[in-house]
Write a structure and sequence with these properties.
Elements lengths: L2 H7 L3 E2 L17 H9 L7 E7 L1 E2 L11 E2 L4 H21 L4 E9 L7 H14 L1 E12 L6 H10 L3 E7 L3 H7 L5 H13 L4 E8 L6 H12 L5 E6 L21 H17 L2 E4 L3 E4 L3 H7 L4 E3 L2 E3 L5 E5 L4 E3 L3 E5 L3 H9 L5 E6 L2 H16 L1 E3 H7 L5 H4 L3 H8 L3 E4 L2 E4 L7 H6 L13 E2 L2
Parallel strand pairs: 2-5, 2-14, 3-4, 5-6, 6-7, 7-8, 8-9
Antiparallel strand pairs: 1-21, 9-11, 10-11, 12-13, 15-16, 16-17, 18-20, 19-20
Length: 450
């Protein structure tokens, strides 16, 4: 623990850098027409990734930072699926060719809120409109509390080979404080059901910094989760942004740990996972040594995307659904956020894109540096700059934030190579932010470093 550094950096509001530039910088200057042009320019020879956003849940978890809507009825979900299917048709037509697919990710919300038959119909439409690679990764996010056996069977039939289950905390006191009651037994049962259905890779999500969490309760949750035998863990810090997510006002701020307490919780979870044989991947993932994520890190092929750390090297991501974000080599795109407005655009036969961002050459340079820092805790800035046609001085010279981090002993510089000290890895977002040319325009919408 470094209390002096915590005092200096903990209040900084910084992105998690799952993209660069980050979403607050998207603008309406990029719309449906631009997206259509970018789709048409995609190569049939290069695999793309697909992301499908299902923005519905049965109940609201008060810590949630996702775009989701609560519904007890199936009708809104069925209406939404009709629009989603139509968007798949519109996008595939706009591409003017059959694109190959290397990765598919169903996110939410709760993707498994869809009825099994409807899920299979949606998946068949994707296969009808795109060419799936033989080894395509097909992943789905799951809430174990609402997962039904029929849906598990459907996931197996669809060929889903990776599942991510929300666990967060198994402490009953914490669960009550975040409005998410989920027993250890139900979670373990869901993992076993998925394994039996042929889902070969399981990820469990844990969160630290929740109300009433302690180091002990974090360790106990981690130990119980390890016993379920997942291949990976994603360990996130709770981002308290009630000014942005109004339902977070239901969380008792007095029950939240301070920065030092949060880091103690995070490190306790990390130590527990690593003691059980999991390798630390970046700053918030863990994987078994034979997992593809660990292999990617060891070979310098780890990437960071909107889904966190990933092996997905596809240049293009096509986002489907309300609020879905996609990207091509040209830039980023985001659909209408509200499901009703999204469905209206699709019903009129228009792509649902309402904002985006066109990348500049300097953006691509800074994005490449930030990604390597986030994945490797080091970056050969000189080599990356040269590969993008720049001099390293364009991002290093006069970089006051970088100079301060070096003076504070957070990082070392050897020529054009930047490397974080191992004991300072928890400040990686601050180092990445030193290369963010737009940070001051968007600080208030991000979460604290610690």
């Amino acid at each position: 623990m470094q209390p002096d550094l915590l005092a200096k950096y903990r209040e900084a509001m910084l992105p998690r850098y799952t993209s660069y530039p980050t979403a607050p910088h998207f603008s309406s200057a990029i719309g449906a027409d631009t997206y259509g042009d970018w789709l048409a320019s995609l190569s049939a020879e290069k695999p793309v990734s697909l992301y499908l956003h299902i923005p519905y849940c049965r109940s609201m978890c008060w810590y949630c930072g996702c775009h989701t809507t609560i519904t007890k009825r199936d009708e809104p979900i069925l209406d939404y699926l009709a629009a989603l299917r139509e968007e798949v048709c519109l996008v595939s037509a706009a591409a003017k060719k059959r694109l190959s697919v290397g990765h598919v990710h169903f996110g939410g919300g709760t993707p498994t809120i869809i009825r099994p038959r409807k899920f299979l119909e949606l998946f068949q439409l994707l296969r009808d409109r795109f060419d799936f690679a033989i080894a395509a990764e097909i992943a789905v996010e799951i809430d174990p509390r609402t997962l039904q056996e029929e849906m598990v069977i459907a996931l197996g039939e669809a060929g889903v080979n990776r599942a991510s289950l929300g666990v967060q905390s198994l402490d009953p006191l914490v669960q009550k404080a975040i409005n998410r009651i989920q027993t250890e037994e139900r979670t373990a049962e869901a993992v076993a059901q998925l394994r039996a259905a042929g889902v070969g890779s399981i990820n469990l999500d844990l969160i630290y910094g929740l109300p009433h969490q302690t180091v002990q309760s974090c360790v106990e949750t981690a130990e119980a989760a390890i016993a379920m035998g997942p291949n990976r863990f994603a360990v996130f810090g709770y981002g308290h942004v009630p000014f942005f997510k109004k339902h977070q006002k239901l969380i008792d701020e007095a029950a939240l740990a301070d920065a030092e307490g949060r880091i103690a919780q995070a490190e306790a979870i990390a130590e527990t996972l690593m003691a059980a044989g999991y390798r630390r991947i970046g700053f918030d993932h863990f994987a078994k040594a034979d997992d593809s994520l660990a292999v990617a890190q060891a070979t310098g092929k780890l990437h960071r995307s909107f889904q966190g750390y990933t092996t997905d090297a596809c240049e293009a991501l096509i986002g489907f659904g309300a609020s879905a974000i996609g990207r091509t080599s040209e830039g980023y795109l985001q659909n209408e956020v509200a499901p009703r407005l999204y469905a209206q655009k699709i019903a009129r036969g228009h792509l649902a894109t309402v904002k985006g961002y066109r990348l500049t050459e300097e953006d691509r340079l800074r994005a490449a540096i930030i990604e390597r820092l986030m994945c490797d805790f080091s970056a050969d800035v000189a080599a990356i700059a040269a590969a993008h046609g720049f001099e390293s001085g364009s991002v290093l010279d006069g970089n006051e934030s970088l100079a301060m981090l070096e003076k504070d002993g957070v990082l070392q510089r050897e020529g054009g190579v930047i490397r974080l000290r191992e004991e300072r890895h928890f400040l990686i977002r601050a180092v990445a932010a030193a290369f963010d040319a737009y940070l001051e325009q968007s600080r208030r919408v991000h979460s604290r470093v610690a």
